[in-house]
Amino acid sequence: MSGPALAEATAPVVPDRATPRRSRARVPRRWRRAVSPVVLVLAWEAAARTGLLAPEKLPAPSAVLATGWRLARDGTLGVHLLDSLTRAALGLLIGGGLALVLGAAAGLLRLGDDLVDPPVQMARMLPHLGLVPLLIIWVGIGESLKVTLVALGAFFPIYFNTYAGIRDIDERLVEAARTCGLGAAARLRHVVLPGALPALFLGLRLAIGAAWLSLVVGEQVNAQTGVGFLMMEAREFSQTDVVVLGLLIYALLGLASDLLIRYAERRTLAWRRGLRAT
Amino acid sequence: MATRTARDLTGPVLTARAVTRSFGPAVVLAGVDLTIAAGETVALLGGSGSGKSTLLRVLAGLDGDAGGEHAVHGTAAVVFQEHRLLPWKRVAGNVALGLTGPDVGERVGRALAEVGLADRGRAWPAELSGGQAQRVAVARALVREPDLLLLDEPFGALDALTRLRMQGLLRRLRAQHGFAALLVTHDVEEALLLADRVLLLDDGVIAEEVPVRLGPSPSPDDPALGALRRHLLDRLGVPAG
Questions:
Q1: Could you give the ipTM of this predicted complex?
Q2: Structural domains of chain A sorted by starting position, each given as residue range(s) with its CATH number in brackets
Q3: What is the pLDDT of residues B138-154, one digit of tens each?
Q4: If interface means Cβ-Cβ distance under 8 Å, which residues of chain B face chain A?
Q5: Rounded distance between C-alpha atoms, residue B191 and residue B198, angstroms
């Protein structure tokens, strides 16, 4: 008896005390989270300037940025970046498109499920980056190797999320659409596609992450262009600043694509904001 | 409208003969015969698991595995226990689902106005209360100008006050549009207030048919209602007091 009574008596007091403190701290908190990254970068800069870090091991961030600016101005960076982006886009398009078709077939049709899903489930267990030796034998060391790797990396997240997104759609909504006279094609457009869209976005985000990862590995195998090539070449001449720049570019590419997807998600999934508002 | 005029206005809107449905060894419907006349409201009463929702699903054409014959002469629309609105379409988009023609917007606006939600067309379903969402579901059925409205415990998930309002709304809409209705419910009171005829589903067949003659606007205090209510509750296995 005394236990719950005690809890009741103290429970309202705690949030009362905590609420004003938290609201006061909310504005500075955002800035507080920026403190440690800034300190780290400054420490890195200072360590490099004072010679604590040898420039051939890790150049100063300012030196990396200067190198980036130099390469951007003479056009080198643009060329390599464009090649990397082309590979990523092509691989995503091929792998993602195939995943979308097969995932939809497996998710929508019982026959598709029986025929497509077992081999895909088995292939999923293979780490696709471990396929590089085999892929070199199959498609050579040229462009097709890079694109194939990206396509393989992008395939699985999109396939599984397409499949799960379709399967998770409430059967009762499909039924309601049927009573409204919607045929199979109209149900696909008005119920299945929008219902699976959140999962599709999640799959796309994971796929883009996998695509960049595949690109990093693929571009280190006999590439003549691309950000990965830039880094491998710089390593041979001990241009550590270019290597670090390459890493920075990969990180920025990942960040930019994620922001882009998030923006697209916010635009197309506005109905979920309504869901959260209530 | 075309289907309405094409239909024989004096004939029944729904005929069902020897409808059967089993789930594995369990026979849920063991030969149901049912006819609903134009403009008539029939309530289908039954205990939990008596198969009344199964029968409605069969009649709505949502169950391909049922035996027997059934046909809707004209157009039918369904209102389910849950509103079943598509969360990714605004209210007006949900009502307009599957409609074609140049005047869709106007028809949707009229249907929403009839359920008292004329100003909520731009809202997302998630922003509505339970009663409002169910009214949108009614509007979605109504906008199709059905000859027959199939209602599967449409007010079962609503609170008592909202339920009373919804029952009033349904009565008013029926008086205005003259559609026939099959109302599946476990609520004896609701069945008696809304229906011209109450059917009792038991053991997979229509066990009893009770005509309700309470006048155009029955009041819950009508003594005739009390006797009927007692009788139906007895049949449903609810002992007196």
A1: 0.87
A2: 2-49 (no CATH), 61-277 (1.10.3720.10)
A3: 999 999 999 999 999 99
A4: 60-62, 76-78, 80, 82, 84-90, 97-98, 123-124, 126-127, 140, 144
A5: 7
